[in-house]
Design brief:
about 260 residues, alpha/beta, Rossmann fold, 2 domains, 11 strands, binds S-adenosylmethionine
């Protein structure tokens, strides 16, 4: 994990300072009192690359590229559309419905997990994995504490279980057929920089490609489908055995699926 310190806003209340102290213990990193220092000065004094910033009701990470914080992003509009009877490409690709159990192997900022959780509902389950501990921490905290949204979106957020883990390792320990669908949204081999809400995550995200071994494990763990999102035209679909799904002909992003209902296991 890259080098970081923990600090707070300039005049923290007791709870904020307590949480900062707790997180510094959890991660074994220095807790630095903010006083009146700028982030650049704190980074210089403590030789830190990044800062985990604890605010009154949220966490963020200050990197060289800016501040990364949790926000439902596109999930808000996508859920509004779903409620209005429109489709969603991820949900169509996963083929999930109320009660479904989904393993999201690449949580990132959590938009896809929130939309899946909205559809899976109270009787379903979304487990979401994130390999970077700082991303996992701010998104876990955001999913539990973000309050500025409508109740059905907040409920969908609260139901997601976030686990800081490498999906390859996690999948090895899952029982066969333990999720209805397993989903991957890795950092694209060729990033779509201009349109992506993911730019702030880039300095921290794990960019390694998925392996055939990970996909084999996912096929063992999923009951019905393994789905991957990638750049349209990406060679990753063929390399990893995904069939590209229709429905996004004019989009720069494509979904691929491996259907497991016909397998002989
Ligand atoms: C493109 S983002 C996912 C975006 C997400 N679908 C959303 O809606 O915000 C990919 C995320 O997967 C994480 N990741 C990459 N490899 C991983 C692995 N082996 N296990 C778990 N997470 C991984 C990256 O760190 C990054 O945060």
């Amino acid at each position: 994990m890259n080098n970081f310190i923990v600090t707070t806003t300039r005049k923290p209340d007791f709870a904020t300072e307590n949480l900062a102290a707790e997180l510094s213990l959890k991660f074994g990193r220095k807790f630095v009192r903010r006083e009146d220092f700028s982030f650049d000065t704190l980074k210089k004094i403590h030789g830190a690359e990044n800062i985990l910033l604890v605010k009154k009701n949220s966490l963020s990470i200050v990197t060289a590229d800016g501040e990364l914080f949790f926000h439902p992003n596109t999930a808000h509009l996508r859920i509004k559309n779903l409620r209005g009877g429109e489709g969603d490409r991820l949900i169509d690709a996963l083929k999930i419905s109320a009660g479904s159990k989904v393993l999201d192997c690449t949580l990132g900022l959590g938009s896809d997990a929130i939309v899946a959780s909205f559809i899976a509902g109270e009787t379903g389950k979304i487990v979401a994995l994130e390999i970077n501990p700082l991303i996992a921490e701010i998104v876990r905290h955001g999913l539990k504490n973000f309050s500025d949204d409508s109740p059905h979106i907040l409920q969908a957020m609260r139901r997601i279980e976030v686990i800081n883990a490498d999906c390859g390792e996690f999948l090895k320990n899952c029982a066969a057929n333990s999720f209805d669908a397993v989903y991957f949204d890795p950092m694209f081999r060729r990033p779509i920089k201009k349109s992506s809400g993911l730019n702030p995550i880039r300095p921290l995200a794990d960019n390694r490609p998925l392996t055939e071994k990970i996909i084999r494990e996912a096929c063992r763990v999923a009951k019905f489908r393994v789905v991957m999102k990638e750049h349209s035209g990406s060679g990753e679909f063929e390399r990893l055995g995904f069939k590209i799904l229709d429905g996004g002909k004019y989009s720069s992003v494509a979904f691929g699926a491996i259907e497991l209902t016909d397998r002989n296991v």
